[in-house]
Structures are given as structure tokens and as C-alpha cells.
């Protein structure tokens, strides 16, 4: 039998019992819709997480640390005469890292605890330097106010929660001035310097020729230009989340004393300034692995989001699998409806099947006819189910954004129906429908045409 004739006959037979066949097809559509809706949420959440990480600029970043031991344990071991110092992460290392292939910039992670005065009231907080490249990363999209006017501007961006501590209405802070009080690191002369002769000076007792550095209080006036909801690169390479952000060039010019400076002094590493960590950015995330290997060969420790994203993909794969299993349960129930509909069709169309066979149709033709009917129900139900599942996903996204808007949070896209999901769901619906048609088709093919013609 030709495919065109088979399809036309299948549609004609489905139209004869349109109510029952429509309800069965609707059952398939509901099953496919539940499958598509659940998987669309998993896909949407995965895309949302990947987009947020990519917008922060972390996918193309490698965080570099020195292999040197820090802290009091390092000082004790150095005092005991331990050999084999690790390579320092200093300005020379920074320049060498900048010469690596595919590297676009290298900048230090500058974070320090300090005090901010606003309206003659002190507020202890933490400050972080932000590179100029962060303007294009997307981490500052949606902020109130604007980004720094230049790389050397005496300006500040506040985190929302800290801004609420300064004023009940954070938006009123934009354009205002706050005073940053910090401890500046000043290297002491190499000869004859004494800690007793300089207020706040620190001295390396292990080597009188290297006098250490002094800690001198300074102030810096900064104009508030923006308010941001979340911290870009929160926690990476620093000492917790910061609440005040200033241009990186300004942060370097301040030479504020950091925890790494104190650790360096205690460990007896000398007075030359070393970075606690450096961020190396590459042109493309695909080049991170090669760059990370080159940096390790230079004698430094590295960290990137490669391993983290692998675990993230594994997590979402498992979630998608579980959602797909639960979503398929409704489709499995719909297959029972297909079996019931086709079995009832056999009982109602026994004389038709007998005439069909008497005119020369064999068992294969009868099977193909019932398979075609099952396939048509799967096709129509699959297309309708994809559309219904997409609408459910949109409704979930809308409801979620209404909930977030009431809490002054940004909107998100929690569902997505890519082309592969839509086509896969339709193909799966047709496949399941054909499986459901196996028993009715085999039963119809086994009918004796003589007995079928006698059936009343």
C-alpha cells in the first residue's frame, strides 16, 4: 500500500470517532507537555547559570597564586632554615604572565579592610579594585548609576546592602562624596631605619638591612557613581565579599596594606611587594586550559572554573535526566489511552477489516494501517504537546518574575525550549505511540476475514 493512501485512510478512520480519538490525542499532548515543561526548566536554569558566569568574565579567567607558604607556620619553618623558596608573585612575574600567548590582561586582586566615613559616621567595610575591562563583562549591567568615568577616576560603586546602611534610599547616594580612611604601605629605607623612630612602622627582625615597611594612615575622597546589587567575582582571589568598589588603578595607587603584606612580613620574605594573587584573562575560554598549564610550568599555582563547570554540567545533566523521567510518566499513561482507543477501533471495525482483507489486503497492510493511525495520534499530540509545554514554561517564567519583582530582584529566564528539545519530544511521542500500537495492530492482523465479515 502506498504511503499517501495509507495516510489518507488513517486520517479518515480517526475522523470517524473524532471525540474518542481527540481525547486520546489530547492525552498524548498533555504527556508531551509535561515532559517538555520539565526539561525546559532544566535547560533554562542551566542556560541562566552559564550566562551569569559568562557575564561575570570568569570563564576566560585564570587565578594565579604563589606556591610560597604563608603565615606563622611559614615563618617558623623559614626561621628553622628550611630551603627551597617558591617563586614570588611580584611585578616581574606579572610582566612575564602578560607576555603569554592569548593573554589580554593581567591584574592583581586588591581587596582590603578599611573604614568609610559618610556624614561624619564611620562604617567598617571592605574595598576591592575593579579593572576597566569589567565594564564590558556584563557584571555591572542593570546597576543604578554608571560605571567609572575613567580608569583613574576618584569614584566608587557601592554594593546595595552597604548603600542601605548609609541611606534609607540608596539612589540618593549617587553623586555624594564619602571618605576612605586606609592604612598605606610605605617601604622604609634599607639602612638604619628603626621601628621606634617611625609611627606605625613594622620591622623585619631577621634582617636589619631590610627594615620592612611602615603603616601610615591616609584618606581618600571618592564620589559615589553607582549602586550594584551583587558583587562581580565575589570571593575569588580575595578575602570575602567586598562592599565598596573603586577603579583598579586607583586601588594600586593607594598602596593600602593588605593581609598578604602582613603574612609576607611575618614569613621573612623581605620588603619587595608581592601580590597575593593575579587574574590572567585570555581571549577565549577555550584557551584557558593551555594558559593554565603554561602558568603552572612557570612555578605558580592556578585555579579556573574549568573543573567547576564540569561539575556544573554533570549536575544539570542529572537534573535533566530526573526531570525527563518524571515527565515521561504522563506520556506513559497516555500510551494506555492509545492502546484502548485502537483496541476499541478493532471491535467496531471488524467488518471493515474483513472487507479490507477480502479485497486482497494481507496482514502487513492491516498492521501498517493501525501503525499509521497510532503514528498520526503521536504526531498531532507531539506537536500540540510541545506548544503546550512552551506555554507552561512561559507561564512559570512570568510567575517567577512577578515574585522576584515584588522583592526588587532582577527578572530571570528559567525555561527554554531549544529546537533539539522540540524535535526530540515530537519524535519521542511518535515512537511511544508506535510502541502502543503494536498490540492492537497485531490483533487486527490476526482477524479471520470470514469471521470478521459475519460479525454484527
In short:
By secondary structure, the chain is of the alpha+beta class. 50% of the residues lie in helices and 17% in strands.
Descriptive overview:
The structure is a single chain. By secondary structure, this protein is an alpha+beta fold. The protein has two domains: 3-53 and 312-454, no CATH class; 61-303, no CATH class. Helices cover 50% and strands 17% of the residues. It is built from 14 helices and eleven strands. It has a six-stranded mixed barrel with strand order 3-4-9-6-8-7. A four-stranded antiparallel β-sheet has the order 2-10-1-11, covered by helices on one side. A hairpin with a 2-residue loop joins strand 3 and strand 4. Helix 1 (3-16) crosses helix 11 (363-406). The longest helix is centred in the C-terminal third of the chain and has 44 residues, at 363-406. The protein is elongated, with a radius of gyration of 35 Å. Mean pLDDT is 76; it is low at 69-84, 192-210 and 233-240.
Amino acid at each position: 500500500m502506498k504511503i499517501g493512501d495509507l495516510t489518507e485512510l488513517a486520517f479518515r478512520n480517526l475522523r470517524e470517532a473524532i471525540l474518542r480519538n481527540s481525547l486520546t490525542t489530547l492525552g498524548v499532548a498533555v504527556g508531551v507537555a509535561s515532559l517538555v515543561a520539565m526539561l525546559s526548566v532544566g535547560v533554562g536554569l542551566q542556560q541562566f547559570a552559564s550566562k551569569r558566569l559568562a557575564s561575570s568574565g570568569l570563564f576566560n579567567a585564570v587565578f594565579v597564586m604563589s606556591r610560597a607558604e604563608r603565615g606563622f607556620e611559614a615563618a617558623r619553618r623559614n626561621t628553622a632554615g628550611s630551603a627551597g623558596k617558591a617563586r614570588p608573585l611580584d611585578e616581574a612575574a606579572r610582566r612575564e604572565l602578560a607576555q603569554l600567548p592569548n593573554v589580554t590582561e593581567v591584574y592583581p586582586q586588591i581587596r582590603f579592610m578599611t573604614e568609610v566615613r559618610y556624614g561624619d559616621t564611620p562604617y567598617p567595610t571592605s574595598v576591592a579594585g575593579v579593572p576597566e575591562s569589567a565594564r564590558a563583562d556584563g557584571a555591572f549591567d542593570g546597576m543604578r548609576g554608571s560605571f567609572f568615568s575613567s580608569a583613574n577616576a576618584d569614584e566608587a560603586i557601592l554594593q546595595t546592602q552597604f548603600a542601605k546602611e548609609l541611606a534609607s534610599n540608596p539612589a540618593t547616594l549617587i553623586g555624594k562624596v564619602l571618605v576612605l580612611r586606609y592604612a598605606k604601605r610605605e617601604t622604609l629605607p634599607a639602612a638604619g631605619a628603626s621601628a621606634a623612630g617611625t609611627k606605625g612602622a613594622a620591622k623585619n627582625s631577621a634582617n636589619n638591612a631590610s627594615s620592612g615597611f611602615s603603616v601610615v594612615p591616609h584618606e581618600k575622597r571618592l564620589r559615589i557613581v553607582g549602586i550594584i546589587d551583587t558583587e562581580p567575582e565575589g570571593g575569588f582571589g580575595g578575602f570575602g565579599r567586598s562592599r565598596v568598589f573603586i577603579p583598579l588603578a586607583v586601588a594600586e595607587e593607594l598602596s593600602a596594606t593588605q593581609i598578604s603584606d602582613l603574612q609576607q612580613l611575618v614569613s621573612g620574605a623581605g620588603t619587595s611587594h608581592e601580590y597575593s594573587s593575579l587574574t590572567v584573562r585570555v581571549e577565549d575560554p577555550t584557551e584557558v586550559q593551555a594558559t593554565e598549564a603554561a602558568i603552572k610550568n612557570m612555578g605558580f599555582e592556578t585555579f579556573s572554573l574549568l573543573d567547576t563547570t564540569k561539575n556544573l554540567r554533570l549536575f544539570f545533566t542529572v537534573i535533566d535526566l530526573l526531570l525527563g523521567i518524571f515527565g515521561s510518566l504522563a506520556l506513559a499513561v497516555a500510551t494506555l489511552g492509545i492502546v484502548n482507543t485502537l483496541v476499541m477501533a478493532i471491535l467496531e471495525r471488524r467488518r471493515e477489516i474483513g472487507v479490507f482483507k477480502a479485497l486482497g489486503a494481507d496482514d502487513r497492510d492491516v498492521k501498517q494501517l493501525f501503525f499509521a493511525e497510532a503514528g498520526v495520534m503521536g504526531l498531532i499530540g507531539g506537536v500540540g504537546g510541545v506548544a503546550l509545554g512552551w506555554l507552561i514554561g512561559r507561564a512559570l517564567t512570568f510567575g517567577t518574575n512577578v515574585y522576584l519583582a515584588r522583592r526588587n530582584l532582577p527578572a530571570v529566564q528559567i525555561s527554554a525550549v531549544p529546537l533539539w528539545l522540540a524535535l526530540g519530544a515530537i519524535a519521542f511521542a511518535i515512537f511511544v505511540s508506535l510502541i502502543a500500537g503494536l498490540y492492537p495492530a497485531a490483533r487486527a492482523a490476526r482477524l479471520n476475514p470470514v469471521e470478521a465479515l459475519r460479525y454484527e
